Amino acid sequence: MSYLDNIRTFVRVYELGSMSAAGRDLRVSPAVTSARISQLEEYLGVRLFQRTTRNLTATEQGRAFYDGAVAVLDAVDVAEAKVMHLTDTPRGTLFVAAPLGLGRRLLAPQTPEFLATYPEINLRLRLSDRAVDLTSEGLDLAFFLGQPEDSNLRIRKIADCQRVLCASPAYVARRGLPADGTALLRDGHDCLNLRYPGASEFQWLLQTSEGPRRFAVSGRYECDDGDVLTDWALAGEGVVLKPLFEVAEHLAAGRLVPVAEATPPVPVQLACLYTHRRHQDPKTRLFMEYMTARLAAALRADGVQSDRNMGDGSGADQAETPPV
């Protein structure tokens, strides 16, 4: 296993471009990471990386070794998956990502029962509203709202989630109640925007009498954490666009009120993103099936799942479609 550990370490160092980042990802110290790379270089008789105090770059030999190393690890993953299918004892660690609101409110509460059912599976849940890269971050699955950009991945659709534009009663009393998206722009309403490094230009996709239309809203407040936007809306700082499941409690209590109801937001897709290779792993398949059923049921129970474009709720796999 030590040689495989060395290969795994090399692949993560190559992909992340850093010994320390690879060590954090693999949950080992930088010293262990460096030692594994040195052992591998000694065994192969070549230098895989050029190291300086500031940079680490793969050598020609390192670049050549990477493709073969990935193929070896893929073959091991497939072999292990076949064995686990036969023994019916899925085990190992799952690395899963999700947006903050979705992860906190829907995903995390469902995980203890899954782990109790499969005691040999460990879960590493990473919550962030930024876009994630499954390959470079070593993820098995990523739950998301919207449309991904990577056409090399696969999507398991779960539901279409209703969204809502809302603000606090104090904000409406101070700035007025916008009737639609046009009023948001015309009257210069403060819109609370979700942005993160690398995000594209922000627009709100609203349903109008002529069909979906993008509104280039603006405001003084931006954040890469959706829950912070909700807090700002509650504090009376502006209008926020949120999945209904994230703010349903605040709407029911009157802490937030719907605005621009003549042009409601277009429902957003809730789905799971995975790679073709990872999908062969039984623990990955089990977790996806488990969460797909329970997240869809939770949305139906809360009345925040859209009937638009929904079939039987089975969440059949589909190829990625372009952003809309």
From TrEMBL:
SUPFAM superfamilies: Periplasmic binding protein-like II (SSF53850), Winged helix' DNA-binding domain (SSF46785). Belongs to the LysR transcriptional regulatory family. This is Transcriptional regulator, LysR family. Residues 304-324 are annotated as: Disordered. Keywords: DNA-binding, Transcription, Transcription regulation. GO terms for molecular function: DNA binding; DNA-binding transcription factor activity. CDD domains: PBP2_CrgA_like. It comes from the Bacteria. Residues 1-59 form the HTH lysR-type domain.
